[in-house]
Amino acid sequence: MTVKLNNDNGLLTQWTRTPAGNMGLASCGVKCLNSSSVFQFNFCAGLTVLCPENTPNANLKIVSSNFMKRQIINGLGEVTFQWDPNNIYDVIDFIKLRPAFSLGNRPRTIDNLYLYLRAYQDALAQTNLLDYGIPDFSHFSTWTCGWRKKGALAAGWDYHILHKVRRNQEKAYNLFFELINQYRNSLFWASEVVLTENNIDYSKSSKTKRYSVSHFSDTTEQNLVPVPYKIVIFQIGESDSRWTVFYDVLGIPTFSSFTDRSKEAYKLMEAEFAIKKNQWQQLTNDASLNLYKITFKDHADKFGMTVSLTEF
Which one, 25, 52, 65, 189, has the greatest CB density within 10 A? Predict the structure, then answer.
């Protein structure tokens, strides 16, 4: 299964990091502020955000923020834990250590955890300060789909984890922290191929292709993908999910898609460009990690802006 990234499909893409339209925030520790028609979210990062009461799914407005590294100090004055509220993995570590500070007296369920993290991400996203870490936390939902080897790519990580344990909320809550630790410590693999003239000529003539590739040097049509100079398929850990990225001759990413099946990623490239197995070159773990960082950190703004995926 491959995710369709067309603008009209209503799906939330991991590249734009835009809040889903149906996201529920009202369950995330909301309380009324001074009997006025606003909800107040008080996060452990020292961030306060307001949302109109009659539109609980509206965009969050940042009122105040205090972004400094936080510490937990024991009775001897020793720092036992330090975390950065701008780093999503530090936030997750803090929730695991002190869940009451984030979830309050609400049950330790994956639903409550998911709602809190989504509200936290959406609030900090407006400041452009949130660090999604390496591997990118926004890839975790796709990763869990490939880990589970079942379900829809459009579903979130909470769905895949919850259904892995037969919808047991408490077990899913604990499993999340196990999986996020596995995800953070995963090795990276990448396979790359530089297209030949034969590959490009095949794409021009092929009628059984997945992508609407433009064979003109200059195009302004939204649904046309520039002809890539190089293609890289990324793998994170033992998950079967794959991230396919097109690059131009300067090494700048121009297009990306993702799938929850390894074989499908390579089959799609063979259908589009007639790329054979022996053309793919395996990168080392270090080289794969460095390329991943360059692609998804330095050029994160490239995705979801200039291209979209079209099915034939």
Answer: 25
* DSSP code for 13: P
Count of beta carbons in the 10 Å neighbourhood of residue 73: 11
pLDDT tens-place string over residues 94-107: 999 999 988 999 99
The rounded distance, in Å, linking the Cα atoms of 102 and 39 is 16
Positive or negative torsion for Cα 52, 53, 55, 59: positive
Q: Is-contact 102 94, C-beta < 8 A? A: yes
What pTM was computed for the model? 0.73
What number is the average pLDDT over the span 85-100? 93
By C-alpha distance, which of 80, 79, 85 is closest to 102?
A: 85
Q: What does the domain layout of the chain look like in residue ranges?
A: 31-125, 188-302
CA–CA separation, 211 and 213 (whole Å): 6
**Contacts (Cβ under 8 Å, ≥6 apart) of 196:** 279
199 within 8 A of 275, measured Cβ to Cβ:
yes
Of the chain, the percentage scoring pLDDT greater than 90 comes to 48
**What pLDDT does residue 68 have?**
55
- 86: number of Cβ within 10 Å: 18
Start-to-end CA span in the chain (Å): 15
User: Which pLDDT belongs to residue 302?
Assistant: 56
